Each structure stands twice: as C-alpha cells, then as structure tokens.
Amino acid sequence: SIMKLSARSATFLLASGLSGSTAFVPSSLNVIQPSATSLNVATAPPGTWSPSSWKDAVAKQLPIYESQEELDNAIAKLDKVSPLVFAGEVRSLYEKLARVSQGQGFVLMGGDCAESFKEFHVNHVRDTFQLIMQMSLIMTFGSAMPVVKIGRMAGQFAKPRSAPDETIDGVTLPSYRGDNINKEEFTPESRRNDPNLMVDAYYQSAQTLNILRAFSTGGFADISRLQAWNLDFVETTPEGSRYRELAAKVDESLRFMKAIGIDTSSPEFTTVDFYVAHECLLLPYEQALTRQDSTTGKWYDCSAHMVWVGERTRDLDSAHLEFCRGVGNPLGVKISDKCTPDELLSTINTMNPQNIPGKITIIVRMGAEKLRKNLPELIRAVQREGKAVVWISDPVHGNTRVTKSGYKTRDFDNVRAELTAFFDVHDEMGSHPGGMHLEMTGEDVTECTGGVSGVDDDTLKDRYITACDPRLNGSQALELAFLVAERMRERTGLPPI
Q1: Whose CA is closest to 435, among 359, 361, 379?
Q2: What pLDDT is attached to residue 47?
Q3: What is the pTM of this model?
Q4: What DSSP string runs through 286-335?
Q5: Bridge partners for 362 per DSSP
C-alpha cells in the first residue's frame, strides 16, 4: 500500500547517512556544516607530547635502515609534501563515530590486507569502493541507521611480522614488511629496507585518495546507480541475486520520493562521505605526515582520517601508543583474547583521557569461542567505568590457518561464527555492536574457503593473488553484509528483509 511504501521510504531516507561531499573539504574553506552534526569533539594533546616523542618509548615492529642519511633525506621529502587528508575531514569522521558510540550508526571498514605497488590500478580501487557501497546499502536499508564507510586504503602498506627474518632453502633474509619498507621478492636487494619506498607509498596513496574522492562526489556514488554497483562476477551468485532484490526495493522507494516532490538529484542522494584508515605501524612515515591545524593549533596525522594500533604494538609503554595519544584523529586499537580488562581500560585512558565520544574504537579479533568467553568481561569493565567507545568486530584475523599445500586461508564459516558471536555478546550485555572490519577485495579472488562462492582447499590456487593475508571476495563479503543487516533489524524490531 501507499502508507507502507511511505514508511519504508522514510526509513531509508532517514537512515541513509549520505551526507554529501563536505567530508573532503578542508576546514579552511569555512564550509558550513549542518547544525545537526555539531558535536564537541575537540581534544587537547598532552603537554609533554610532540610528533617525535615516540622515539623515547619502546618501539617494536619498526625496520632498521642501513643509512641514516638516506632515511633523513626521505623524511625531508615527506616533511614538504601536502597532507593526504585535512583536519576538517578528520573532524567530520570524529563526529560520525561519536554517534556510533552512542548507538546511532554502524561502521564498515574494509579493504586489502596490504596494498602493493604492482597491483595498483584504478579498476582495483573502483571495485573495492563499489563493494563497500553495495555492503553499506544493504546494511543501511536493513538496519535503518547510517553506515560510516571507511576503506583500508591509501596507506595500508606495512604489516607486522612474527619474525624479523625468513629462511627459504637455507637462505635467511629480512622478512617482507610491506611495499613501503621493502620488496616481496626473495633476494638481498629486494629485502633491503629502503626508506625511499615511503615516498613512493605517499604518492600512490595520493592517487588512491584522488580516485576515491572522484568516485565519492563525481556521480559514481549516485544512489540511482545502485544496480550498477553489482560486480560482474558476483551478479550471478545467490548473494548477487539478493542484492538485486534489495536494490529493486530501494528503486521503488526512490520513485515514490520523486513522485511526492523530493529532489533525489541533491547531494544527499548523489554523493557519499568516504574515509580511509590504516594501521599506524611505520612511525617515521606517520610523524613526517603529522601537521598542525592552522585553525585550532591541534596536531593531526594527515596520512589518513583514522589510524589504529595493532595487537603487537599496543603495549602501554609502546612508541605507537605514545605517538597516537597526541594526534587529533579518531584512533583504533586491536585486541585479542590476551587483552585483560585492566589493560583495556589503561589503553583507553592513555589514548582518550578526556573520554570524548568518537575518539576510541575497539577492534575485537579473537575467534568465536574465545570471543564468547572473553568479550563480556571487557564490555563490563568499559560499562562500569562509563567509557565511550565504538566496538567493532574483526572476524577474519583470528581465523587464519595454513592448508596442507601451504596456502594461508580463512574458513568463511569461522568468520561468520565470530561475527555472530560478536552480536550475541552485545545483545547479552546491552551494548551496541558498532561495526565490522574486514580484509576483502572487489576482485574475483579465491583466497578464503567457504561461503556461497564455493571456494575450497583445492581451488584456492585458482586466483590466489594476495600480497599478504587472504581476503574475502565480493560474494563472501556481501554474505556478511546481509548477516549484519538481519541482526541489526532484529535489534530494532524490524521485520526480515
């Protein structure tokens, strides 16, 4: 009926969160933000902090460079380059995450395990952006709340390693740490830590951001193109069919809006806010791109809108925590089952002493069984102390295994089980499941087994091209998006999609 369609349209319109192109406008341009998004998210950096104070702390997972002069020259080049992101953009994300921490949204973070130079192509960036748009549409329509879209892109090069060296056929060389540190080929020349690769990584990140900004504001993200977002190789899968059915419902809602005089060609329908984030690992690079905002005097890491500290570098005396505590960006910290409630509270107090909503995101990676056992006491501690955090599930990192043939992979059933456990625990604790963090790609890869794509151990080799860890393909990622949509609908009392 018309009344039912109107309600659905209103729900979609209110939940869409497509808040226009202002996320990519520098604050110096004085663009007026809607008053509804005005939050006090200012934070003063600690008095003893400076962009280089991390050098006095315990630094783990950092490369050792042969030539200090070569390193100094690379840093000098980065000191002079333009920031990749602007303070106004960072504050825009901060405000959205503040709302998520209060139960008013959901975060989707996704992208490559590690970006590489040789695989960089506009089509690769486009396909991943397209997949994130599909997933966010599913979750927005399903959950009736805005989805904050963050790509693991434009800076996700460096990776922590379990050992500093790697031995193959009796030959020992430094481990491959990512394209911004050394090269993947197993030769002494390639495995040499080269500081000039940081400069190369900056320029590739600048290109990636340029592409993302064009897609976000140049018409590609227009909601009327939602049928075109379906990736070719996904379209024939069951999840592709489910997406087409949902897209048809949205199309119907859009036609109704036009009929009653709503302008669906306005920026709210044709552009999206899209942010980028990466692990804060290579501190010389992060420091070189840290800038002081001319309007507020605050320091921002302008290599990304958001950065996070990994499980291996989150010690309270770590250089990475020391660096992050002084920048004005939203910050994440990854935790496993090793994290105790006291550790977590100490980390939160270090990174967000003023307890400002939107500042801290806790990214949980444990595996389903350990999550059910350990996450409740962590949530309980945060609730007891009244800490404002965003809880995000990373259901991939705790579910990695190696096949008999030597391929590192992840079983989709285990990934889905951990995501389900994440929602179950938050239902039990009365807390808000605030997001999902995935290593995924818009390419047609066979790197994770299971799901509707039907990849198994024998077919992993068909299209296994990752530079580091295995990634979910498009159909597997969409399957998780539908799972999130259904769980969020249950929480809000809406009928199934």
Answers
A1: 361
A2: 56
A3: 0.88
A4: HHHTEEE-TTT--EEETT-SEEEE-GGG--TTBHHHHHHTTS-S-EEEEE
A5: 333, 391
